[in-house]
Amino acid sequence: MDFNNIKNIIFDLGGVICDLLPEKCLSQFKGLGCDVEIFPQQYSQFSGLFQQIDRGTISGHDFCEGMRIKNNAPQLTDRQICDAWNSLIGPVADNRFEAFKTLRKHFNLYILSNTNEIHWKYVTENTLIYRGENASTWFKKIFLSYELHLEKPEIEIYQTVVDTAQIKPEETLFIDDNLINLKGAEQIGIKTLLSTNGDWVDKLLGIAKQP
Predict the structure, then answer these.
(1) Which of 158, 88, 96 lies closest to 123, judged by CA?
(2) Which of 62, 69, 109, 134 could hold 58 in an S-S bridge, CB 3.0 to 4.6 Å?
(3) Distances (CA, A) of 123 to 52, 146, 200
(4) What span, in angstroms and rounded, lies between the C-alpha atoms of 4 and 206?
């Protein structure tokens, strides 16, 4: 892949910036007495309540109420459900934060994520914090599915990003851990990189060092 002339880098959130802990999340919900069979097999392919909250068509409270109804568990509080749901979000390795500090000197950095108000609140208050600084400020703009009412891999969400940020697709690199999402971005000319477990760090730092 030719990464020459890259000026903008768009990062997925879960699985690229922060780790995801699906087994822990399922265990937490199971501990609350929830039927884990209602969860999608792949967290990148949400449906039902999970897709609705990621798309922003229901609120966090509505999501919790839906979980209570589906699990016949009226005793569960919003806090219990949100804590279990947030256990999906893992940490951000220090080397990724250090990479962002370097990369933002050379590129415009953005986030594009299929996420919801519950997870995003947790991430900004707990996960994107590095040495006392909220690292979310390191990105020029952050695009979230629940705010846009669009989701990857819909072409419209990528077009919204380039139009809003006023960037050129051919000068933009998108990094995601899901091949389907990359294919959507490629349809409008964005360059892509499939990456998991933080292996993007060395690749991007290598690009930054190129003359």
Answers:
(1) 88
(2) 62
(3) 19, 14, 20
(4) 12
Task: Please tell me the distance from the alpha carbon of residue 94 to that of residue 97, in angstroms, as a whole number.
Answer: 5
Burial class from Cβ neighbours inside 10 Å (0-12, 13-18, 19+) for residue 92 reads buried
CA 182 to chain centre: 13
- The answer to whether the Cα torsion of 185, 187, 189, 191 is positive or negative is positive
**Partners of 191 in the β-ladder:** 173
Measured between alpha carbons, how far is 177 from 71 in angstroms, rounded to an integer? 31
Report whether 110 contacts 161 (CB < 8 A).
Answer: yes
Q: Please write the tens of the pLDDT for every residue from 77-86.
A: 999 999 999 9
Rounded distance, CA 10 to CA 143, Å? 10
Grouping H, G, I as helix, E, B as strand and the rest as coil, residue 145 is helix
Query: What is the rounded distance in angstroms from the CA atom of residue 51 to the CA atom of residue 72?
Result: 20
Find the DSSP H helices in the chain. Answer: 22-31, 49-55, 60-70, 78-86, 94-103, 117-122, 145-148, 155-165, 179-186, 200-209
Give the whole-angstrom CA distance, residue 117 versus residue 185: 24
Per-residue pLDDT at 48: 83
pLDDT digits (tens, 9 = 90+) for 6-46: 999 999 999 999 999 989 999 999 999 998 776 665 444 45
What radius of gyration, in Å, describes the C-alpha atoms of the chain?
Answer: 18
90 is written with which tokens?
């893992």
Compute the distance between CA of residue 164 and CA of residue 158 in angstroms, rounded to an integer: 10
